[in-house]
Fold this protein.
Amino acid sequence: MLTADEDGKADWDDALLLQRSTELGRVIFTQDSDFLVLAAAWQTNRREFSGLVYAHQLRVTIGGAIHDLVLIASLMRLEEMRNRVEFLPL
């Protein structure tokens, strides 16, 4: 796991963060719905990204999100997440 803050990119906009995660070969987990709009636009324009996992703050507990993220990480390869958006809870 790597947070935007740990990567020194906390002040970057969403598009740069999605690009950075793709460069690093990492899937983004977010509760920011702006990423859903961005990912949809990238899918429409066939722009590659490593994948996105979205959880609405009021629809999943922290424990539930961690459980589902571990499940996704255990069952899916990065190639399977490419250009894909997954919603929590599963």
About this structure: Helices lie at 14-24, 34-44, 62-75, 78-81.
